[in-house]
Structure formats: structure tokens, C-alpha cells
Design a protein that fits this description.
This protein is mainly α and 252 residues long. Helices cover 62% and strands 6% of the residues. It has 2 domains: 162 residues, no CATH class; 82 residues, HIT-like (HIT family, subunit A). It has 9 helices and 3 strands. A 3-stranded antiparallel β-sheet has the order 1-2-3, sandwiched between helices. Helix 1 runs antiparallel to helix 2, helix 1 runs antiparallel to helix 4 and helix 2 packs antiparallel against helix 3. This is HIT domain-containing protein.
Length: 252
Amino acid sequence: MFLYLFAIIVCGGFMCLSIWQVINFIDMEADYMNPIELCQSLNQWVVPEILAHGFLTLMFLLMGIWSCFLVNLPLLAWHIYKVYEKRHLYDPTVVFRHLSDYKREGFVKVGFFFFSFFFYLYCIYASDQLAPLSLLSRALTVPAAAIYCYAERALCYLLLKPHLSMASDTESKCVFCAIATTERSRVVAETDECLVFRDINPASAAHYLVIPKQHIGNVATLRVFHIGLLERMLQLGTQVLHKQGYESSQIR
């Protein structure tokens, strides 16, 4: 019985850890942190997570609780495979290349631990040995509800964050956003979506920059719906140079 209680506590910790990992991946995708900081932050928890989950699965095996053992077996096999292939730690040189895979794995883990948490809770209530721990098991409904609310809010944050406006501290420090809002003296043309301005250190007689008015942190944050914006930016820049007498073959 106490093994179920231990499993609930450990599983709740795993669920929070997985949500935190996915948030870190999204932060790096949005250019809020660099790959080195990300890997240093995540790698310190990889081995403890693998060992804790392996210990929990072993205890289920030794105690003969086959249903819980079989539930945890796929994740244990995945951890063993990653350790065998030496892929369990995050490498800052390749983490950005596999970012989508890491995010997908994180979401799967969140769903797995979420299911496991309430599965263990059900096992406590369904156990024949419930009587000595009835008050304790019922008291678990309070932290269970709290963790459920936290997980629900965190998942909503994860799903909505990539589509939120980047009007944050990063935007306030963006040089291009400052030009678009305050430094208007160098602007030569603009539309509702983008503008053209002279470069402060021109490399040629007609050196202009075209930027969107919407803050975009870097190329990695571009989405499919930005394609039309990029095309209109290119058209606006071409129009400015054509008005100054430049041919299309001279534009680069």
C-alpha cells in the first residue's frame, strides 16, 4: 500500500519535471535561452529521473504488482535504450536540430505520468487493504486536484505560447522594434505590416533594410502563416529600389 503512495508522489514529481522540460524547449525555440543554458539546466535531472523511475518499476516487479509493472515497462525500456545508445543526455551542438523530437517526447511523458498518477490513485481505492489508510488515501484527493489544475494550466500555456505576441521584455530590447516605433527618421516606406529604412552603416548607395512591424525573435520562430508576410516584405523593398531607378538585376 505504501508503495502506491510512494508511486503517486514520485509520479507527481515526474509530471511536473516533464512539463518544466517542455517549457524549456519552447523557451529555446522562442530564443529566450541558448542551447548551452538549456542542456546544463536539463542534464542535471536526466540521470535522477531514470534511476528513480527504474527503482519504482523494480519495486513493482519485486512486490508482484504486475499491472503497475507493465504500465511502466515501456518507459523503462525507452530509458534503457537511450542510455545504451548514449542519447540520454542533451548535447548543445545538436539539441536545436532535434528540438521537435524532444518536445514530442516531453508531451508524451506528460500524458504518461498524468495517466499513471490517477491510475495509482485508483489502485489505492481499489485495494483490499484500504481500511488502515482510508483517511490518508482520501486526503490525497486534495494534492491530486492541485496537481491536475497545475498540469492543465501548464499545458494550456505550452499550447498557446508559440502563438502569443512577442510583446515582452525581449521585444522591449529589440533594436528593430525601436526603429519601427520611435526612430522614424530613417524610414523611407511602410505598410500596415512592414517598413523600409536606411541602414545606419550603408555598404552601398542604396542599402535598405526591410522589417516586419510584428516582433519576430529569429528565423526559428517563423511559422507557415508568415510566408505571406515575407513575400510582401520582399515586394515592398523591391518597389522602393525600383522608384530610385534600380533594375531587378541590380537588386541583391
